[in-house]
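Form P-L/3: holo structure prediction, ligand pyridoxal-5'-phosphate.
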Amino acid sequence: MSSVSPATTPQAAQREVASCREDFPALHQQINGHPLVYLDSAASSQQPAVVIDAIAEYQRHAHANVHRGVHTLSHRATDLYEGARDDIAAFLNAASRREIVFTSGTTEGINLVAQSFCRPKLAAGQRIVISHLEHHSNIVPWQLVCEQTGAELVVAPINERGEVLLDELYDLLDERVTLLAISHVSNALGTVLPLGEIISTAHRRNIPVLVDGAQAAPHLALDMQTLDADFYALSGHKMFGPTGIGVLYAKEQLLDAMPPWKGGGDMILEVRFSGTVYNELPYKFEAGTPNIAGAAGLGATVRYLNKFGMERIASHEKDLLDYLTSSLQKLDGIRLFGTAANKASVQSFLIDDIHPHDLGTILDHQGIAIRTGHHCAMPVMEFFGLPGTARASLGMYNNRDDVDRLIGGLSKAAELFR
Ligand SMILES: Cc1ncc(COP(=O)(O)O)c(C=O)c1O
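OUTPUT (holo model):
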């Protein structure tokens, strides 16, 4: 699908999704004798052929180390790697390519901020604020840095719908807070947080904000200059790109003032035993040989997403999430978790007292992939008093047939247990 004009009618939107599905080879296979229905994109989404091809093309014709070589392959590798950075800077509307640090994923980006930005500032009496909705990757790095420094980790509460209680969050944002670290979209419940309001409130109190954008990047249009987050972390494999590559966006003046986190090659200008001069941004934060193939793949990913436009992807997914939720609600014995007013692409649920792993296994026998368990958000599960849930999550390539197959599969599973 190469047009950028809006898909104006439901039929046009359907045709667009049908053509998009053709781009994803993994969707066209049989699993346990059934055509695959992939509803686990929040864990890892599938990749279009253009991304797979971009990685293969790098491996076949451009594989060499970046930045250092004078030979042609090294130039090709560098062009691919740095070209991807430019494409991602544009995709995020960052003010500068110096604000785009390649990481291995969201987890590494958050750890970088915890260790480089926060650790030197933290001491007993100071606080990091997070919410009860967070993924473990936006909890444990803060626990570690608090243990290292004597600072305190404080958690803003949520309600039964899975929304952060904003008044309670704002009450926590006082002069003791070094950073607010919060998700854009919850991976367990699908809640979309009102980040514009949260970030401007934190900034009025001089508190910088890190956003865990792992679940937003595949679903929402992102504009760093409008959002005004200080740090924004995302992962390639959640947004139809490869694993092992991600991005930490950070405001240039913050990155400039931060010490390097990891030491090694590429992050230096000069090394002497008497001392080292660090490289300019963003290389100061990219120690060692990077994931060049991953970056080439991620560049191809954002170019692919641009062909559709994130607004159109968001609108398609919103319709489909409404259809998924209303279809699930018709099932006997269904319990939905995550019913926030503003949601994206994820629905957690249970049926009767059937164990979610049993639901997931029975669905897999029918070729339907969902996620079951605690979704790396054990505090969210604890809030609902559950060990885990079943979770269906949508990507740009899913359609109503996928939802209908899920509902049919769940009805079968429920029959087996009744
Ligand atoms: C909200 C959220 N944050 C962080 C992560 C961690 O991402 P990664 O494992 O790619 O670092 C995930 C992955 O599930 C996530 O959903």
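COMMENT: The first strand starts at residue 30 and ends at 31.
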